[in-house]
Amino acid sequence: MFFIKRKIYSTRQISGFLAKSCRCFSDSVRLVNIKNKIKEGPGLKEFIEHSAEPVLLDRPRIPYLSNNILDTSKRKVYFDVYGCQMNLSDTDIVWSILKKEGFEKTEVEEEADIFLVMTCAIRENAETKIWHRLDHLRGFKRRRELSKNKLRPVKIGLLGCMAERLKEKLIEKEKAVDVVAGPDSYRDLPRLLALTESGQTAVNVLLSLDETYADVVPVRLNQDSVSAFISIMRGCDNMCTYCIVPFTRGRERSRPVASIVDEVRQLADQGVKEVTLLGQNVNSYRDISEHTEKDETKLTEGFKTVYKSKTGGLRFADLLDKVSSVNPEMRIRFTAAHPKDFPDEVLQIISERSNICKLLHLPAQSGSSAVLQRMRRGYTRDAYLSLVEHARSTIPGVGLSTDMICGFCGETEEEFQETLSLMEIVDYNVAFLFSYSMREKTTAYRRYKDDVPEEVKRDRHYRMIELYRRKCQILNEAEIGNTHLVLVEGSAKKTGQIMGRNEMYLKVLFDQSEILSEDGGRRKAKPGDYVAVKIVGARSSVLNGVPLFHSSVREFYRDVGWGERTKLRV
Ligand code: 5AD
Ligand code: SF4
């Protein structure tokens, strides 16, 4: 009643009203009971905080709603995941939380009661896609309301990075969704969903300083996959001027080593053969729950950081050591790493362990020192190139990948040419190439002008892609005749051939046939197998090969060191 009238009454006023309306009750004992109940009920504070609709829950618990409002009665959830690998990993966390509460999962829209859209806000085109999807879902919801199935109303929940950024627009202006949950409030989802049962819209976008979901054992949406993602940390403290991530995902915090190692062990037991450790900046990982004497991070010469280095605790090299020791047959990958803190210990352990993939993600973002400074990346072009040289001398044959942005505020043609020349020099095996998209809240939004015209951005983007493809073609052709260790994932949709990935995460296709197995017999390749494949053809994004024999990581690299692996000719 108090919410409908949108007025706030004190408990004394409420008991006054009740007293008046209870005059007709001859039984005064009942009145006393009611008064007592009111005294025990919520105070004025709770009503003031949550008086306006929609109910904005900026904290995980609502003191006066008991847990028994949750009636999940086998409602079916349909997940839509957009954006980065971190979103895939977060969806596994969300699914674990909901499954425990009795929800079910479906991959068929018609069966769904709840649509949960895991969103990305990093660039405008990512958001545009999600708005289109929400339009579709709203149409679906309306059709359900009008159909004979109306007793099963559809609820739409928006999760992830768009949640914090767009909460008002989503609810008040667009009335697009029933639930909005930010990256740190997934534990609250069952309660938020329960609130929607009475027609309310529920929001929790509070960012946390310590939430890492360390105790939530993720349940993989894709149980058949031979690879899995593990979030080792959340948030980012770097504040690159173009990036919205620190605002949507909050401050950087690391998950304890022990819980990560446990998860890797469980995944290994389930037959997973490859894990990718995820964070916005994995090499600033620190498990401060473990006390050590270790010093603070020493940045490589030529690199600086905007935040105070953390001290003590276990660091990324320690984590890599422990994770790669769980099962020497499990491939370990990691992303993303900021070039500013790539300590020798990390490079050393990568070079020593045959199951840590020799592919370093060193996102340069630009090849121009002036642009890097405007981006607040904390390094110059020369410092970046020295790091590349150092990594290549420590880990011979190491592959490199990058992210590049063209058309950042004030970028001149000469500055863009420096990005192209960096790509020419470094020979990246993998590159993610973006056209700059101005985001509200970022430093660039406040300080600079998004002054590179759209058509110039498009043209530069196209030129980056052209160069990248040309370089990849050359790099890949050089692999013809070499033998790669390929982890089989399944079969290629178009050709029906077997598809797997090599150490550089490049797709390798080959025809199915019976090949020599470890026990001396012959058998076909299946998902999860490691197969030695001789490369016979190359395009810019895929290699073609001939399968030679089944192998293991240890066997494959036993006789040849990593640097020699591409020379292995059988
Ligand atoms: N515009 C274009 N690309 C961006 N990235 C981050 N913010 C933006 C933006 N505003 C890119 C960076 C980052 C990757 C994940 O996305 O290259 O490394
Ligand atoms: Fe964004 Fe920079 Fe943090 Fe990467 S390191 S998430 S680009 S702020």
TrEMBL record:
Q: Which SMART domains match?
A: Elp3
UniProt keyword Translocase, yes or no: no
InterPro entries recorded: Elp3/MiaA/NifB-like_rSAM (IPR006638), Methylthiotransferase (IPR005839), Methylthiotransferase_CS (IPR020612), Methylthiotransferase_N (IPR013848), Methylthiotransferase_N_sf (IPR038135), MiaB_methiolase (IPR006463), rSAM (IPR007197), rSAM_horseshoe (IPR023404)
* The entry's keywords: 4Fe-4S, Iron, Iron-sulfur, Metal-binding, S-adenosyl-L-methionine
Q: SUPFAM superfamilies in the record, alphabetically?
A: Radical SAM enzymes
Q: Where is the Radical SAM core domain?
A: 222-475
**What are the names of the required cofactors?**
[4Fe-4S] cluster
The entry assigns this protein to a family as follows: Belongs to the methylthiotransferase family. MiaB subfamily.
- According to UniProt, the name of this protein is CDK5RAP1-like protein
Source organism per entry reads: Chilo suppressalis (Asiatic rice borer moth)
